[in-house]
Amino acid sequence: MQPEVIIVGGGIAGAMLCFELSCAGVQVRLIEAATRPGSGVSARSFGWINAINSDPEGAPGLFALRRDGLERFAALNQRCGGALAAASAGGSEGALLWQANGALSAALRDKMRVAGYRVDLLQPAQAAGLLPGARLPDLALHVPQELAVRPAHVCKILLERAVSQGAEVICGQRVDAVATRSGRVTGVICDGRLMASPQVVVAAGLQSRELLAAFTDPGWLQASSAALVELSADLAPFVPVVRTPDIELRSVGSGRFLAVTSAPDPLNPQAGKAVAQAQVAALQDLFPEAGQVRAVAVQTGQRALPADGRPRAGRVAAVEGLYVMVGHPGVILAPVMAASLCDQILGRGGVPLSEPL
Ligand SMILES: Cc1cc2nc3c(=O)[nH]c(=O)nc-3n(C[C@H](O)[C@H](O)[C@H](O)COP(=O)(O)OP(=O)(O)OC[C@H]3O[C@@H](n4cnc5c(N)ncnc54)[C@H](O)[C@@H]3O)c2cc1C
After folding, report:
1. Which of 15, 40, 164, 307 could disulfide-pair with 155, CB 3.0 to 4.6 Å?
2. Burial class (CB in 10 A: 0-12, 13-18, 19+), 109
3. Rounded to the nearest whole angstrom, what is the distance from the C-alpha of residue 333 to the centroid of ligand 1?
4. Atom 14 of ligand 1, residue of closest alpha carbon
5. Domain region containing 233
């Protein structure tokens, strides 16, 4: 049967939209080039669902969208019985952080309080309860509502649910082009054949630039690289995401930890070694009793950044029925973009998050 909507890309963006559309009873088909969903940039993501890393004064619009994303993720996690952010699924709950000194930490907390965002001040004994064995400052901040997820796991769960609600998920099939006739989308081209659909959503991360090149100026999307470092250490697992001036870290299972840092992509072996060593040193500094700390793997990924900083979840102006779904930070914003697009596609008056592309 011809689907009402084809989604190109099974990362966190495409998976979230597929789930939402299937919940709304839409006949949807998701096409993913890789053999498994969630194996693009989403597989290399730190997966921290937060608003604390954004500035409510400098970028109030993005701050509000990130808060909305966090609230929607928390609600979705509840709908899924906690399975998205469970520690057993590589998730974390709450965030513990501090700035270079107590005055800066207090100022950050005050700024967030003015914005109505909950951040608690913790004394060292309280922080030690959340992060045993760590070298802690006199003043730490706790953001209990924040979460971290393993995006590939979230994609899997959402797509399983979508399929059980009638969605079709095709993996291992690359979409070569978007098909149009007389300014209207007619479907997508795969292996020289048309897969017909009256509506197509391109949610292909950075590859969205190529797929939409015939209809848009390619300057709308830029790449920004980052590295995910997997560490092993003789250290008990901890619950919150941790951000210090030297490391962003979370626990993902017994003796296994993830750290995120900026780094060029691709990394040459020497640069990769330097990135790994810096994270090992930062973890050892944070946990002086950690025993042997090793970097197990360093993976880099290209984050897709719309040039105007706004997530793109709306129409491609040149083609009727064609939509795009790309934003940064893409995990946090996926539920917000999916809700907006779902409403636009269903004609429920969804507010586009940006001007048509
Ligand atoms: C190291 C690192 C840490 C990060 N940490 C965070 C974080 O803490 N929080 C956060 O919110 N974000 C974070 N990000 C960013 C976030 O991971 C991305 O924004 C998000 O995963 C993008 O999801 P996506 O679905 O848009 O893209 P992708 O995950 O790249 O998915 C796109 C999919 O489309 C498929 N595809 C591409 N072209 C085609 C085609 N022609 N036909 C069919 N399929 C196609 C690809 O195979 C891929 O699976 C991080 C990124 C990196 C690299």
Report:
1. 15
2. buried
3. 12
4. 45
5. 91-146+224-303
